[in-house]
Design goal:
The chain is about 60% helix and about 15% strand. By secondary structure, the chain is of the alpha+beta class. Helix 7 crosses helix 9 and helix 9 runs antiparallel to helix 10. The chain is elongated, with a radius of gyration of 35 Å. About 15% of the residues are buried.
């Protein structure tokens, strides 16, 4: 810090050295001025100047160190100041801090308004979407009915994903932890995907050794929806395996498919927002949001999601539910 201060005050130092050099130069060319007296004066001046620099360093650094360490700049501007310059700096900080607070508040208001408008729009769209499903169910042409049901399901899942994406930042306010029946949640999600699975020739092999977990059923359903949707999307004419069990005293749920799998270089990034694939970069069906949202929703529930995969051999996603002593952290939110 002292070196930084000397660099900041180098103009003072250079001026002082120049004045001392000028005095010595005058003593050298003017015999009326004693060189011994001039050097003695330079020595005393240098000593005084060094003491002055040290004192100023102590005083000024208190201000700048406080500025550097301040957690709240508004509180810093209220502290006792030692010089007019420090007052100018503190007033400027307070002014800009207040301006930034107003800008942040306005941006938050606009974001909340946009979120509310989007949520309202999603709920409004659900009404004609429900009516459309009823119309599709009355179609007699089975081939057309399957195609339209698939497209309807895609729209339904995208709207559902968008709805939950907006709710995730506030999901702690919506959690209701209870004893949840895995079979009910899983079969509910499988039924939603039934028409799509029939179209692709995909079945489900479900074996639940442990059927009950403590969690929020609604958000667990959303997490499973993302994983099952991915399993169906990237599989053809094969079964999706769903197994539950115990590992290290914790209940686990495995969802395994026989789809195209994930490249090893992509595996560490699949939960990143917007990441799709490097091996299938032209896949326009992928949004890169499903797994990202699944992990985001799992974090407040203390559920860990792990993935294992290999190209051409399918993927296995494992949900590890929290131990009993972790429920306090969840219910305490």
């Amino acid at each position: 810090m002292f070196i930084t201060y000397l660099k900041e005050r180098r103009s003072w130092i250079l001026l002082f050295l120049l004045l001392q050099f000028l005095l010595v130069f005058i003593a050298y060319i003017d015999s009326a001025v004693s060189m011994e007296s001039a050097l003695y004066y330079v020595f005393l001046s240098a000593l005084i100047f060094v003491i002055f620099i040290l004192i100023r360093f102590q005083k000024e650094m208190r201000f700048y160190q406080g500025l550097k360490e301040a957690e709240d700049l508004l509180e810093f501007s209220d502290r006792e100041l030692l010089s007019p310059f420090e007052e100018v700096v503190a007033e400027s900080i307070a002014y800009h801090f207040e301006a930034l607070k107003k800008a942040v508040s306005e941006n938050e208001r606009r974001l909340d308004q946009e979120k509310d408008e989007l949520l309202s729009w999603i709920h409004e769209v659900k009404t004609p979407l429900t009516a459309l499903k009823l119309m599709i169910d009355r179609l007699e042409d089975q081939s057309l009915k399957k195609e339209m049901t698939y497209e309807w399901l895609r729209i339904h899942l995208l709207l559902d994903q968008q709805l939950h994406q907006k709710r995730i930042p506030f999901m702690e306010n919506d959690l209701y932890i209870e004893q949840t029946d895995l079979e009910d949640v899983i079969f509910g999600e499988v039924k939603t995907l039934q028409s799509w699975c029939i179209q692709k020739g995909i079945g489900f092999d479900i074996d639940l050794e442990y059927n009950e977990v403590m969690t929020d059923a609604k958000w667990l359903a959303f997490i499973l929806r993302q994983l099952l949707t991915n399993a169906v999307k990237y599989s053809d004419a094969s079964d999706v395996q769903i197994r539950s069990g115990q590992r290290d005293g914790q209940t686990i749920l495995e969802i395994a498919d026989e789809g195209r799998g994930i490249d090893s270089r992509d595996l560490p990034r699949i939960f990143e927002k917007g990441f799709t694939s490097t091996a299938h970069h032209q896949d326009h069906a992928a949004t890169g949001m499903g797994l990202y949202l699944a992990r985001k929703a799992a974090q407040p529930l203390k559920i860990r999601i792990d993935a294992e995969s290999a190209p051409g051999k399918g993927s296995t996603f494992t949900l590890t539910f929290p131990k009993s002593n972790e429920f306090v952290q969840i219910t305490g939110m």
